[in-house]
Each structure stands twice: as structure tokens, then as C-alpha cells.
Amino acid sequence: MRYSAWQVLKQGLGGQSGWKPVWRDPQPKPEYDIVIIGGGGHGLSTAFYLAKEHGLTNIAVLEKGYLGGGNVGRNTTIVRANYFLPGNSEFYSHSLKLWEGLEADLNYNVMHSQRGLINLFHSDGQRDAFARRGNAMINQGDDAILLDRDGVRDHLPYLDFDNPRFPVYGGLYHPRGGTARHDAVAWGYARGADSRGVDLIQQCEVTGIDIEGGKVRGVQTTRGPIRAKKVAMVTAGRSGQVAAMAGLRLPVESHILQAFVTEGLKPVIDHVVSFGMGHFYISQSDKGGLVFGGDLDFYASYAQRGNLHMKEHVMEAAMALMPVFGKARVLRSWGGIMDMTPDGSPIIDHTGIEGLYLNCGWCYGGFKAVPASGFAYAHLIAQDRPHDTAARYRLDRFRTGAGLMDEEGTGSQHNLH
Questions:
Q1: In a 10 Å sphere around its CB, with 0-12 CB exposed, 13-18 middle and 19+ buried, how is residue 8 labelled?
Q2: Which residue, 28, 221, 251, 416, shows the most beta carbons closer than 10 Å to its own?
Q3: Which residues are paired to 62 by β-bridges?
Q4: 303-329 per-residue burial string, b: 16 or more CB within 10 A, e: under 16
Q5: Kind of pairing, strands 206-212 and 215-221?
Q6: What are the residues whose beta carbons fall under 8 Å from the beta carbon of 382, sequence distance 6 or more?
Q7: What is the DSSP code (8-state) at residue 244?
């Protein structure tokens, strides 16, 4: 069913009885051309673009739980293209362009809101760094405006501009940045892939990867064996565990990243705001809740929950930046499992095993990358060569040291990215 204003009116007048299921619930077939392990945003977008761009439909997406139950539904929904280094800059620029046409492409409302992103700076050195980043963004074809103190005050009058430790000097404004509804992104891609013939199989955990003579043959699952000519791994924080089934040891660590939301408040934050002196970022949802997050919990874990010490750390950053929100009540928190690479940049590449592909290492950048990640991964799987926008996301850079992309300049320590 194609969604439209006419369908909304028609179904409303008909008692809402004519809506069709958004996607099928098929039984797994014995064999597919391509099996995608992971039914999150990246896995679903990969399936969608394999079908849409390459005409491949004999595909199964295998999800051990329910579609969108992992990191794609456990983040702070930020969409941006303010990266600096070659390799990252063009990739996220491409992703933002896909975001801007995504709702028309999917015929689905993902609630993409280009409300603007402002990264604050609090010293002369930070101003220089953001000016350089802004110039790189403009050279890439994206937008950036360097705001002085008064320029930030025009947009964000509620900040503590004269905080003794972190006075606000200005900010880098990225007008095309914003947010999207995380669940809707997963649902939209799932619906789009299903409508093109892709099988979305939930409650189907992969327990083994079959390899013979250096070539992948299929997977073992809790719903029986499934043969496949190609297998694509895209399991975020579980990447290391899934790759181990194929005898691979990946250069990733899994860490917890917490996020929070307050009670609904009247509209006050029109933008996404990032604190330059603490890893803190905040926006306001359509329901009025303040959605915010901060640093990793800084210990390796596969749990989808965090600890109190990091909750306190994030709340301290919130109060330092905007004490006006001190009386807002936090309703809930949640955790996502971040697959952290040594240089903070992702991997989209062959594994060295014929027919087995890898997509992982998204660190903090996974949600905003969903469209371009799926687009590039689909190209790699279908054409057996990397897409231009992801050509630098090679796995062997961690073996050779060539082509590392340390976006934050924090060295080769996973949890600092």
C-alpha cells in the first residue's frame, strides 16, 4: 500500500480497517543469494538498496530479536555531515544527501527535521579548530557558519554564557543538521525492502557461519541452516562475536553509550546543541522531551544498560551548559552497544573469505550513517568493489597503519573515540 493524504482520509472514513501489514512475516527459505546478519538500520538499508539499486531480491535479513531492537532504536537521533578528514567527510556528506530525499524514496515519514546543529567552543584554540572544520565542510559542498558569542546567543539564549570554567566563545552552525525518528527509519527501510521481495526474518539468531575451502556457504540459525552465496555481517556492537563464528578477530571493542530523555516540556530548544568541553549533546523531541547523551561508560560490555557514575557525569555537563533545565525530571535512560575501532572510523570491506563481507565500527556515528552505509555496503556486496564514498573504510588499515582516519585526534585507544 502506498501512503498518501488520500489513504489517510480514506482509512479514517472507513474505520481504519483497510490498512495492510507493513511487512510480511515469512518462513526462511533453504537458500538465498544473499543473507544479511543483522536487522538494524544498517542491515535493513543494505537490503533496501540491494533491491532498489541493484535489482537483487533473493535476500534474507536475519534478526535474532525484532527489527530495529538494537542501536537504531537506542540513540539520540542526530543527523549531521560535519566531519573533517578525507574519507569521512565525503561519506557523511553523501549520507546527508540521502537523508534529504529519504522520505520520498521510502514513501514513509521518518520525521527528518533539519533544525540545525550548533557545536559550541570555549577557547581560542577550539575556535581555530572549528573554523578549520567549517572550511573543510564548505569545501566538501556542505554548509557551515562560524558564530561568535552574540551569534550563539541569538540562537541559544538559555545557555550559561559566563560559566567560570567553560564560557561560551561561539559555535559552528551546521544548518542542514538535525534529527530523525530512529524507529521510523528502521520501519521505513524494512517496509521498502519487504515490498521489493526481501525476506525479513525475526527471532532467527545466527549461531554459526559455514565456510568451506575459504568460501562462505551459508549460516546456521536457531531456525535451521540457510545456504547462501554471499553473507553480509552488520551487527554493530555484536560484530566481534559474529565475526568469531567465521574465525575472524576484529579490531573493535564494544562499549556502552547511554542516552536519556526528560518529561515533556514546552518547546525551548530549536536546534541540536553540542557542548565543546564535555561530550554532551541535546535536542528536544516532537513530544517535548529533552533527548541527550554524553560519554561512553568507558568499560567493555555487551549489556544494553549503563551505570550511575556516567549518569552523574552527563547530568553535570547538562547543568554546566544550561542550568535552566535543572528541575526537569528524567523519565528514562537506555544504552546502546557501540562497536569502537582504534581510529574511530568504520569498516566496510571484504573479510578475505570469499563471499563474506563486513560492516562495523561505527562508534558514535552509526545512526547518521544509516543511508550511506547501506548504499555503500550494497554496492560492495553486489559489485565486489567498494563504493567511492567508502573506499577508505578498509579493514587492512589496522594491520598496515596506512589510511587511518582519527577524526578526533585521540590516538589508537578504542574507548576515546
A1: exposed
A2: 221
A3: 37, 201
A4: ebebeeebbebbbebbebbbeebeebe
A5: antiparallel
A6: 50, 53, 54, 56
A7: H
Tell me the three cell numbers of residue 153.
546567543
- E strands, 265-329, in order: 272-275, 280-284, 289-300
CB 274 within 8 A of CB 281: yes
pLDDT in tens, 312-371: 999 999 999 999 889 999 999 999 999 999 999 999 999 999 999 999 999 988 999 999
Cα 393 from chain centre: 16
* 278 has pLDDT over 80: no
Indicate the length of the chain as a whole number: 417
Are 77 and 68 in contact, with CB atoms under 8 Å apart?
Answer: no
DSSP assignment string, 22-83? SS--PPPPSEEEEEEE--SHHHHHHHHHHHHHH----EEEE-SS-TT-SGGGSS--EE----
Question: In 142-225, which ranges are E strands?
Answer: 145-148, 170-174, 178-179, 199-201, 206-212, 215-221
How far is the C-alpha of 87 from the C-alpha of 388, rounded, in Å?
A: 9
Task: Assess contact for 301 and 255: CB atoms under 8 A.
Answer: yes
> How far is 244 from 5, CA to CA, in rounded Å?
48
Structural domains of the chain in order of their starting residue, each with its CATH number: 25-75+183-251+343-394+401-416 (3.50.50.60), 114-176+253-340 (3.30.9.10)
Residue with cell 547538562: 318
Angstrom distance (rounded) from CA 337 to CA 296: 10
pLDDT higher than threshold 90 for residue 413: no
How many angstroms separate the CA atoms of 411 and 397, rounded?
14
Q: For residue 11, give the 3-state DSSP assignment.
A: helix
185-212 burial, b for 16+ CB within 10 Å, e for fewer?
bbbbbbbbbbbbebbbbbebebeebbbe
* CB-CB contact of 172 with 146 (8 Å): yes
Other Cβ atoms within 10 Å of 265 Cβ, number: 16
**Model confidence pLDDT, tens digit, residues 144-185:** 999 999 999 999 999 999 988 899 999 999 999 999 999 999
CB neighbourhood size of 133 (10 A): 20
Run of H or E including 220: strand 215-221
CA–CA gap between residue 299 and residue 416 (Å, rounded): 11
How far does the chain reach from its first CA to its final CA, in angstroms?
Answer: 42
Give, for 258, the enclosing helix (H) or strand (E). strand 253-264
